[in-house]
Amino acid sequence: MTSSSENSKRVAKNTLFLYFRTMLTMFVALFTSRVILNTLGVVDYGLNNVVSGVITLFAFLNGALGTATSRFLTFELGRENKEQVKKTFCTAFNIHFAIAIIIVVLCETGGLWIVNNILEIPPNRMIACNVIYQFVVISAFLSITQVPLNAMIISHERMSIYAYIGISDAILKLCVAYIISITAFDKLITLGALNLFITIGMYIFYHIYCKRSFAEYNIAISKEKKLYKEMIGFSSWNLIGQLQVMLKNQGITVLINIFFGPAVNAANAIAYQVNNAIYNFSNNFTTALIPSIIKSYAAGEREQMKNLIFRGAKFSFFLLAIISIPAILETEIILHLWLKKVPEYTIILTRLVIIFTLIESYVFTIWAGVSATGNIRNIQLTVCVIFLLNLPLSYFLYKSGYGPSAALIVSNILCIIAIPVRLYFLKKAIKIGIFEYIRNVFFINIVVFIMSIIFPFLVHLYMPYGIVRFLTVGSVSVATSISSIYLLGLTKRERKQVAVFLKNKLHRSSK
């Protein structure tokens, strides 16, 4: 097993690859979203979002299996059991193929009925929505069977190729936006067809790369009954977690469509688009870190595992806060600069979604710690009970006359309630004390956040609205966030490591 310093260097290197990917994909995604929104119009943009969301009502099954695949592959790599890694991949591919068939059947029956009978779709756009729905069903099948390949790349920590794939996808999406803007054919159908072509191309590339790069690539019929049982058992409990995510996101999307129509769906879609761009900065770090946490557990290095969990939770929050603070304060001007015409409710929905992501930033490293043990039943059942309240409470509030933001306020409250629950199960799984975690993570994060937001908020409060205030708030926010993180968020050892890293970088650049 690699040493702690080598592990840290690998995580840092992988994170840099993913940040490069995110910087490009974020700007491309924001630009293409603006072009597509302006080209399609608010109604078609909202329809595209809600029709695609129907697939997610079923595809959450795939998310559960994807997490299981990554966990089992990473665990066996940590044990350096090459033969078992090969069997795990083969079994995972078989399971995903079966699930893909099931989801296609569900989509072509229940999902199709929802599109034609439940969703609020203008009569003149019904044919177009049915056509793009079929494109999305095919894409869902390919994406599901591609998950084991993606998990293999991440488990091997090949973040460079993972970054290149993301960059290629972003560039292709930019081409799609251009084609949409100049085509004379139905723009919504054209968008769906072009996105399907990209999915097919990526699917072929994943197979070619994994077959050439990894010895465990093995597409065959697996007869590993015990492994089927273990992976399906793990996935079954993980499915509960995916269920609550589906209800929080796509369930609310459907409710918004029913109560407020496609225009507000567009506002909700834009809010999540902005949030995803911000969230990816933090997610890059956890994506690079989670395999190391699981491998540390598999190798019996529990102290290193605990340090990785603490450090991962802190830094994922820090990285998210640097971007989130100016985004929350200056949401209005960001959206106007980006979209020009901002749909109603977009500003408040965007702020609430970003706040939710800040609260949730610690979840991924906690989940990595618990899932490394393979025992996730109790945490999933308990957290599921909490988050299943999201949909009925949102429905009740919408029925009572509250606005679209009510559902996201409920999500944030439930997220706060779930914090002590998750910490309790982390303690049971790997003996990390609740107060030890609060002292090493939450307390530090709260102090850093408060100190980081004070000066930007004062600038926002007293300067007049405009581009000058936006740039000033952004500059002050980044400066105060980095200072607070360095002085208050890092331990002495971490500050020393940062100083050495910067010194080495400056020394190399001076040569």
Q: What brief labels describe this structure?
A:
about 500 residues
Précis, in short:
By secondary structure, the chain is mostly helical. The protein has one domain (about 5-510). The protein is built from 18 helices and no strands.
Secondary-structure topology with pairs:
Blueprint: H1 4-40, H2 42-78, H3 82-117, H4 126-155, H5 159-182, H6 187-213, H7 225-260, H8 262-298, H9 302-329, H10 331-339, H11 346-360, H12 363-372, H13 377-387, H14 390-399, H15 406-430, H16 434-462, H17 467-489, H18 492-509
Report what the structure shows:
With about 500 residues, this protein is mostly helical. Helices cover about 85% and strands about 0% of the residues. The chain is built from 18 helices and no strands. The protein is globular. The chain starts with a helix and ends with a helix. The mean pLDDT is about 80.
